Amino acid sequence: MDRALPSPTPETQHFWDGCKAGELRLQRCTECSNTYFPPRPFCPGCGSRSVEVFAASGKGVLWSYVINHRPRPDMGKDPHSIAVVKLEEGPKMMTNIVGCPQTPEALQLDMPVEVTFETFGETALPMFQPAKG
């Protein structure tokens, strides 16, 4: 079975295009300076439609996670993390942590992480790995 993948919409296309290009893109309100995720055509803070897309640093910290020991068939057979990363720019993002053992000893809360992209067909998904330095 193939992995379930997101379907870009006009409101999210810039985000998915950025992922394909190896760039994590966020949006920022030009009225109140609120940076937010997930993508939407208006600021969730003040409601303004005056928003811009920018390349984020791709850095953050592991905010929360669970280890799924019984993954869906399209996610393979090995345990994997379902995580929330707090991005350096402020928003939180649901993701997976990769590049390390999927154990509580390896997945330490507040550990620095950085974005990496895994490609599935035509779609690149942002995932995070322990920061290299």
Structure, explained:
- With 133 residues, this protein is mostly beta strands.
- A hairpin with a 4-residue loop joins strand 5 and strand 6.
- It starts with 12 loop residues before the first helix and ends with a strand.
- 17% of the residues are buried.
- The mean pLDDT is 94.
Question: What is this structure, in a nutshell?
Answer:
The chain has 1 helix and 8 strands; from the N terminus they run H-E-E-E-E-E-E-E-E. The protein is mostly beta strands and 133 residues long.
Main β sheet profile? 5 strands, antiparallel
Structural class: mainly beta
Low-pLDDT ranges = none
Q: What helical percentage do the residues reach?
A: under 10%
> What is the β-strand count?
8
Distance between the termini: 37 Å
Structural shape: globular
List the helices and strands and how they pair.
Elements: H1 13-20, E1 25-29, E2 35-36, E3 51-55, E4 59-68, E5 80-87, E6 92-95, E7 112-120, E8 123-130
Antiparallel strand pairs: 1-2, 1-3, 4-5, 4-7, 5-6, 7-8
